[in-house]
Amino acid sequence: MVIRTLADFLPAALQSKPRVPTGSPRSMPPEVSSFAALSDKLGYLSKADLKLIRDAYKFADEAHLGQFRASGEPYITHPIAVAGLVADWKLDAQAIMAALMHDAMEDCGVTKSELIERFGAPTAELVDGLTKLDKLQFSTREEGQAESFRKMLLAMSRDVRVILVKLADRLHNMRTMAAMAASKRGRIARETLDIYAPIAHRLGLNQTYRELQELSFSYLHPWRHAALEKALQRARGYRRDIVSRVQNDVVKAFSEARMRVDISGREKTVFSIYRKMREKHAGFAEVNDIFGFRIVVANLMDCYHALGVLHQLYKPVPGRFKDYIAIPKPNGYKSLHTTLVSPLGTAVEFQIRTDEMHAVAEAGIAAHWLYKVGAQKNVNPSDVAQRLGAMWLKSLLDIQNETRDASEFLEHVKIDLVPDAVYVFTPKSKILALPRGATPIDFAYAIHSDVGDHCVAAKINGEPAALRAELRSGDVVEVITAPGARPNPAWLNFVRTGRARSKIRHFLKNLEHEESQELGLKMLSQAMRAEWKAAL
Ligand code: MN
Q1: Which long-range contacts link 319-327 to residues 24+ away (Cβ below 8 Å)?
Q2: Are 351 and 455 in contact (CB under 8 A)?
Q3: What distances in angstroms separate CA 330 from CA 144, 166, 391, 442, 531, one per listed residue?
Q4: What span, in angstroms and rounded, lies between the C-alpha atoms of 296 and 207?
Q5: Is 107 assigned a catalytic role?
Q6: Do the beta carbons of residue 440 and residue 494 sit within 8 Å?
Q7: CA 91 to ligand 1 centroid distance, Å
Q8: Which of 10, 308, 309, 421 has the smallest CB count inside 10 Å?
Q9: pLDDT (tens digit, 9 = 90+) per residue, 295-341?
Q10: What is the pLDDT of residues 353-381, one digit of tens each?
Q11: What's the gap in Å between 168 CA and the centre of ligand 1?
């Protein structure tokens, strides 16, 4: 049994000396700034790979010669740091090379054909996917950004390494943003919070997700962040006694059950506390009274065994148990969650999972590479993450096919990034994950666009239900279609998924002129009739 010391209950930022701005918990390892330090991380690659990487480094170093970052450091330190973060995920040589050269096309006039010739097509494609479109092509910055973003997402749906390098790039930029002009910081932090953090979450890269959120928050609201952080540290001090008492009880219970487990404490991030306070209109004390432990066990059945040990130790809070092993989250996350009442009356949250589940919980889709080079070559813990990640990427392609302009695409994607999900079942017990607030129409389009287009009625748990009814987890949803039926424009007012929205809009755009006139008249008279009734 591994027992962690009290220091483990403090976030990493409080333990290690060089702190990130305003002391956010740092989850990913610190970055490297020299090629020598980067090389030290590449022990998992072959000699031939290392030679290719050295070539890419030399190429990038020459391309960026004479350029400097806002901090005054030579520019090349940035691509090296990004490559270092990518190496922490144990990505392959092509991804490391792309990380080293990711800004070369945009900032140094290097062409794609030059990269293909020197480093081969796969690496060149990766770099190209990371390169923004030429600003000069667009009339406004928003338009240029939206188009560049669409280009990157498409590249990423072909090759997920594109987004992994991009996330590492964004993470390093956020970590070093203090040197940047204040006017730029707000915009970049907002974009990170709205788009990059949710993408990281969607792909299960939770460490990265938390750090991006934390850094964005500290730049968007520096005073709130500082105040909450101080309050958190104080609360941690007060809580020390109860935390160690619970920990001792738990350790003892597992040793009596002769179970080998790894116990560690979990702390909430400043941002998650802030968000809870806002959502629940609650004070700091109300959202901060809960603390948690993570129990890592050897195998799947031990998860349930450990759950039994904990429920025998303290009473569980009814309704708080969740089995994310039987029903994983859409990003592949698996664990058992339960909340217990400690002898002092405080609620304590527990997460129970195996090592493999833990790797996926922290690194998501990147756990695929992490594990491939690890000792257990024959297990692939991230199958679920891979499959679900691929499903999400495919849904992006669907949205892309049906939207014409980039800002509309971006709007749809933002909707799809909503992390909260409900899980519903088809009549044949197939499970579907939809964003919170989704309706039977969203469900119909999630099954197939034909089902959505011809949907006329729905049943939830066997009972007739409105097409705009909000679905809840566990609902069995059945959609009734009719061959002549067509999407109703009014659906746009309540559908929740980007997919349904884009499919309905696509259908409406393709209506013949006369048909749309007819439809317009129908809607107008419907609206007038409603007004008329209301007036009576
Ligand atoms: Mn960059």
Answers
A1: 325/300, 325/353, 325/357, 327/423, 327/431
A2: no
A3: 31, 22, 10, 16, 43
A4: 17
A5: yes
A6: no
A7: 18
A8: 308
A9: 999 999 999 999 999 999 999 999 889 999 998 876 678 999 999 99
A10: 998 888 888 877 777 666 555 444 444 44
A11: 9
